[in-house]
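Typical record is below.
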Amino acid sequence: MATYDFGLLTILIVEDNGYVRRLQRMLLNALGVGNVIEKSDGGEAIEFLRKVKENPTETGVSSVDMMMSNWQMEPIDGAMLLKWVRRSKESPDRFIPFVMVSGFGDKKKVAEARDLGVTEFIAKPYSLNQLLTKLMLVV
């Protein structure tokens, strides 16, 4: 199998559960992802993305290369975040790779995510190898 260098990637994790968020960070770090940014809901992610677009120096990153978002969160869930990313004029990149993460991986949920413009879908729980596969597909 070929080896990949994800050291230059910046990935934004949007997850309301602190334990799951830390676990995702650890998995991405284990895969060699260079910069992992964490936000606890869609609203925080939108504000962060706005700041990246307006003043990258303030955020410490010039761009976000990929997003991983939980579907179910309050007050702004992953579906609303994805709609904002894909449709808002304020979005810094309407084509950013977006991986939806959900505990509900049934066909209806996957189809709904696809129709919203998701790049990939990963169902919880997932393994390091499953995450690597999705990461390679996105990259």
Summary: The chain has a mean pLDDT of 94.
